Structures are given as structure tokens and as C-alpha cells.
Amino acid sequence: MRFKFSSLAATALLTVGLAAAAQAQTIRLAHVDPDEWTASKKGAAAHIFKNIVEGETDLTVELFPAGALGNEDELVAQAQDNLTQVVLVSGAMSKACPAASVLDIPYTFSSATIAWDVLDGDFGDALAEHCLAQTGLRTLAYGETGFRNFTNGTREIRTPADMEGLKFRVQPIPLYVEMVKGLGGEPTPIAWTELPNALSTGVVDGQENPVGVIYNNGLHKLQKYMTLDGHVYAADFILISDEFYQSLTPAQQAVVARAARIAGNMGRSIQQWSTAEGVNKVQAEGMQVYSPTADEIAAFAEKAQPAVVEYLRGELGEDAVWIDRLQESVAAASQ
Q: Which Pfam families match (predicted)?
């Protein structure tokens, strides 16, 4: 005799099946950095996020490092479409949420710890909510790409006057163009992939990047001088599709949020390590490194900030209020 399911039983089985499918959801996590956790801040963040989430939930996390799914702009778009659920990005966030670009105002943060206090406090929470409303992407936590510094092959830079007449490769982002102009240098937007050749052939005299990026990509071999001016502190955004986040149970959401916060701090730690190690290594390999005094940094800020702030106020419109909110938060954190 064939057993017949009642409609009630079938409905119950369907409900159980759907619940099991929900529990077996997969998170695709992507970033553009190397996978090696001991040298890559995003790599480290991704691995600890995966371990915590898989260890404490029925969720599975698949990692796609090293640009396997595309560049940062493409990853943001994928997350907005819920094709890739979690992405770790830096500069691309300001394109999706223009208010995030205020974090790139030069010489805003005097130290990483002040940046952490600001981003992990009320300002960071408010910016996350604002960007969520604009993009559909929830900022789970902030990581770190690190402070950017100038290098060149011509002379030591101690003051803005030392930058005059030098051509610096910058990212093709107007804010960076305005910054170098304000400092007296000649900004030259060049794609990252073309930078080594541009330095080797003299198309540009210098460039700017975090120390770890400079060392790990061999740029110190093409440049003689580095100035640790830390002109821009670059944050990583650990983003999740809010559509996907809302599909999780409250218990799953809590684990994912906590894992992301730990991942952000892990990324920060790896970045701090690679910076300290990188400074020692470039010096050991012959690069001359200069650390400006507080007064010298103030002189750089006096030249660079007004041009960038003026540009951003024009670009952001009503969102320019985020400039003032950031400055107030930094002042409070610096007391």
C-alpha cells in the first residue's frame, strides 16, 4: 500500500525543509588582498571571520581572496545584488557612499588609536547607518589599510616646499589630486598596475601608499626616500548585504556581527605589524626613512587640508555635514 501524505504533513515537511535550507546558508566572502593571513590584513580578517562563523553557526563561509571575484568596485556591486554576501573593501566605499570620503581628508588622524576610537564610536555607528540607507550594505565593522606615506627617488621630504616640482603618482581619485596640489607637488593619476613602470621610466618621481604595500610590492627598490607623514588613514569596511543579513536568525546575526568586529581588529593588528616590520625592512635594504616632527606634520596639514575640504564640500552638498561631524569626533577623541 502506498503511504499518502496529508496536506498538513506535507506542509510541515516543507516548513522543516525550508528551515534546514536557511540554516545551511552559504556566505561568499571576497576581497582583493592576498590570502596569506600572516601578511595580509584582509586575508587575516577573512580567515578569522570564517572560523568563528562556521564554528558557532550552521553557516558556511567560502573565501574568495586576491580579486578572484573582481576589483573592489565590482565587489561592492555584487554585495548590493546579494551575489556576494560579505566584502572587505576600502576606497570603493566612498564611491557607493560619498560621505565615507571624509575619512580621506589628509592629516585628520594623528594616530591609529584615535582613528579606532572614532570609527568604533558614535561617529562610526552613525556613518554606518547613513551608508546602509544609501547602499543597502551594512557595515559590520571597520578594519584598517593603514596610513599612507610619500616616497620619491629625488630628495628627502621634510616640508611641503620639498615636494615642489616633483611628480607624484596618485590614485585616479580627485581628492588625492587636490591633496598633492595643495602640498605643492604635481599629481599624476596612474593605475596601480602601471605604477612600477612609471617609477622605473621616470614618468613620475614618487608615489604614496602604506608601508606594507610599498615593501610587499618592491616599490622601495625603485625609490630612495620615504617620509612617514601618514597623510591619509585608510579604513577597511567589512560589509554585508543587508538583504542577506535580514534573512539570518537573530542568533546568526549576533555571531556574524561579533565575528566581523573581531575580524576588523585582527586586520588592524596585522596591518600594524606589517607597517612596523616594513619600515625596518626598507631601511635595511637601503631606503632612507624620515619621521616628521609634530610641527612639520602641522605644516603639511595647513597646506593640504583646505584644498581637500573645499573640494569635498562642493562635491558632498548636504552630506558635507559629515566633515564637521568627523572633525568634532576627532577633537573629542584627541583630548
A: DctP
- Domain 8-333 CATH assignment equals 3.40.190.170: yes
Number of CB atoms found within 10 A of residue 321's CB = 13
Residue 267 in contact with residue 144, Cβ under 8 Å? yes
CA–CA separation, 107 vs 114, rounded Å?
12
Q: What angle do CA 257, 261, 263 make, to 5 degrees?
A: 115
* Location of C-alpha cell 584644498: 307
Q: Are 131 and 124 in contact (CB under 8 A)?
A: no
Grid look-up 554576501 returns 85
Domain boundaries, the chain: 8-333
Contact 303/313 with Cβ under 8 angstroms?
no
Cα 274 to Cα 67: distance, rounded to the nearest angstrom: 20
Going by C-alpha positions, the residue among 131, 109, 231 that lies closest to residue 175 is: 231
Look up the pTM and report it: 0.90
Q: Quick one: DSSP state of residue 306?
A: H
Distance (Å, whole) CA 142 – CA 145 = 10
CB atoms within 10 A of CB 6: 8
Give per-residue pLDDT as tens, 226-284: 999 999 999 999 999 999 999 999 999 999 999 999 999 999 999 999 999 999 999 99
